[in-house]
Design goal:
Arc Repressor Mutant, subunit A, Rossmann fold, 12 helices, 3 domains, six-stranded parallel beta sheet, alpha/beta, three-stranded antiparallel beta sheet
């Protein structure tokens, strides 16, 4: 909820006095839309000053580790646009506080006593529909992330997140957008990668590897292959190892057999 009000600054009313007056009238936090240094440079005559006054974001914090919960709460309270209105040590308390206080944002851990965080997020929609759920967890498994997002979470952050990033994420979630920790984003993105078409094993070989395999199939040993291709024996051995890995075999005979079967299949298709 944001309101835009117009105030006039006069020489007899210092900027800080006008600022305090605005804060008292709104009983809430305010944001100057231009840097204060520019306001202080205004000439001493009646000049319009626009100040945006917005309500604080009310937060309930749920985590079963008391020290971490208390420390996080104290840090968030230092931000002038946040107000931590409740703390919960388990999932049941988190739901009860949310139902009673209707906070803007519920920050909840995944692993919680009594009711786990995923179930808390799912039940929150019925208990406090206007509350956004932001998960703050130490776990980055895909199963947890997908389950919480499916349950209705607006964001998923890891506890390694920077404090300023946490603060910005709270603001973003409050505005109705979704936030994900960068590491979580990478994991989720991998789930939607289109499947790669199957490539025949022989087509996975590089031109050099195909030359070596053809020579091996003709009966040449590693020394002869090295001499013919102007390579060292060690280089040939390295290529053969990669050929075995790409074909899914473990010996020279199996690799040559794969080549023979591929040639036979190709001749059959051409006929």
């Amino acid at each position: 909820m944001t309101r835009l009000q117009r105030y006039r600054h006069s020489p007899r009313q210092p900027l800080h006095a006008m600022r305090d007056q605005c804060a008292v009238r709104a009983c809430t936090y305010f944001v100057l839309q231009v840097p204060i240094k520019y306001l202080q440079a205004l000439p001493h005559k009646s000049a319009p000053c626009y100040i945006t006054i917005m309500d604080k974001i009310r937060i309930v914090l749920a985590d079963d580790h008391p020290m971490l919960r208390t420390a996080t709460s104290r840090i968030l309270q230092q931000y002038p646009d946040f107000e931590v209105v409740g703390e919960a040590a388990d999932g049941q308390q988190a739901l009860e506080l949310s139902e009673r206080l209707h906070p803007d944002v519920l920050i909840v851990d995944i692993r919680m006593p009594v009711i786990d965080g995923i179930e808390v997020v799912r039940l929150l929609k019925g208990r406090s529909p206007g509350t956004k759920a932001l998960v703050l967890s130490a776990y980055d498994e895909k199963e947890y992330v997908l389950a919480t997002l499916k349950a209705g979470a607006s964001g998923y952050l890891l506890k390694t997140v920077d404090l300023n990033e946490l603060a910005q994420s709270i603001r973003t979630v409050h505005l109705g957008e979704t936030v994900l920790h960068p590491a979580i984003t990478a994991k989720i993105a991998s789930l939607w990668e289109p499947p790669q078409p199957a490539v025949p094993p022989l087509e996975r070989l590089s031109p050099r590897e195909r030359d070596i395999l053809n020579l091996a199939a003709s009966g040449a040993d590693n020394t002869a292959i090295a001499s013919q291709l102007d390579l060292s024996v060690r280089t040939v051995e390295g290529h053969l190892g990669r050929i075995y890995a790409k074909l899914g075999v473990s010996s020279r005979a199996e690799a040559v057999g794969s080549l023979a079967r591929a040639v036979q299949a190709s001749n059959g298709n051409s006929n």
